[in-house]
Amino acid sequence: MTVISSSAKTNSATGGRAGSGRFVFGKLSAILFSGNLLLYLIVVYFVIAAFIPALFSVGNFRSVLSNLLPLTIVSIAQGFVLITAGIDLSITAVFACSSVIGGLIMTSNGGWLANRAWAVPAGLAAMILAGAGIGLINGLSITQFKMPPFVVTLATMTFFGGAAVWMTHSSNIYHLPAGLVGISKGEILQVPYALILTALLALSAHLVLSQTVIGRWLYSVGQNPQAALISGIPVTRTIVFAYVVSGICASCATVLLMGRLETASPIIGQRLLLDTVAAPVIGGVSLFGGRGRISWIILGALFVSLMDNGLNMVGLSYFVIMIAKGGLLLMAALLDVHRTRLASNT
User: What is the distance between the alpha carbons of residues 161 and 178, in angstroms, rounded to a whole number?
Assistant: First the structure.
């Protein structure tokens, strides 16, 4: 007769519980990070709508769309960086600096190019250059000085955010030209220009990640930068490219925010920082790099926007909504950690 020791029984029971725990977390991870996210999003939205019929009103739909489009663009920006196993906290500083620079150039109330025919094109170009410049500083600091992305982007967020406040003496800039406002509020054949701009950026980002060599480089660098370097991939240029793209996309989102508010401000979009991280991670972009798709990011941004809208219509305070978003982000991060560990053990 075979005798089973008590320690063996304990190990077996512990292993069973651990295996059960891994199974549960694996199922949760599969649900959250699968293509079924859209299905669950629709179900949740209809459940909320049963209590708040106004969710389906045309006015509310337009409100959700106006919030969704800039969030989608900056979530794509953050997604490029996350795929390389980095993070960009300076997105709000790009909002501030590009907004202030564009406002100082374009405003008809004493602007540098006030009432000039080429004020809007020049202002938009300056905004894009400002975003690209901040992204370039981030990328070079990370690659050349081997500094952690969190520290670098936190420093640039503080520095350039403060610079924007200093340039405007903490005041808003009004009297923006109609050409800028029209980008955010105008439409053609009842299709908003902002939607067209967002769709073009999303399509371009999808093609870069799925159809180009630089896209494969981004995933390879995120998965294993040492192996990528040995394979001949220009790791430094790839990382710098990701942060420059992040800065440019954040500047494009700033254009939509400025047009919607008809204001340039050194604090514009500050509340979006958590959302720019939450949307890609909820959509399935890994915090450890090497995994993510543009379609996932769009679904994550849609989920965050609808959640924000629904909780606002319920009448919850801003702080309660932030708690809910933070809890959702924490859950997504925990599932991402578990999924990564499972992948490394197989």
Answer: 26
Distance CA 330, CA 333 (A): 5
Q: Tell whether the model's pLDDT for residue 102 goes beyond 90.
A: yes
The predicted pLDDT at position 22 comes to: 55
* Alpha helices (H) in 145-231, listed in sequence order: 149-168, 178-185, 193-211, 213-223, 225-230
H or E element, residue 35: none
Confidence of residue 14 (pLDDT cuts 50, 70, 90): very low
Residue-wise pLDDT for 15-60, tens only, equals 455 455 555 545 555 445 544 566 667 777 777 777 777 777 888 8
Compute, in degrees rounded to 10, the torsion defined by CA atoms 284, 287, 288, 293: 40
Closest residue by Cα to residue 195 from 70, 302, 45? 70
CATH number assigned to the domain covering 39-329 = 1.10.3470
Mean pLDDT estimate for the chain: 87
pLDDT at 105: 96
Task: Locate the domains of the chain by residue range.
Answer: 39-329
Residues in a beta bridge with 187 = 192
Stated as kind and residue range, the H or E segment containing 241 is helix 235-261
Query: Cα separation of 149 and 151, whole Å?
Result: 6
3-state DSSP: the chain helix, strand, coil percent, rounded to 5?
75, 0, 20
Structure tokens at 258: 């400025």
Q: Where are the beta strands (DSSP E) in the chain?
A: 187-188, 191-192
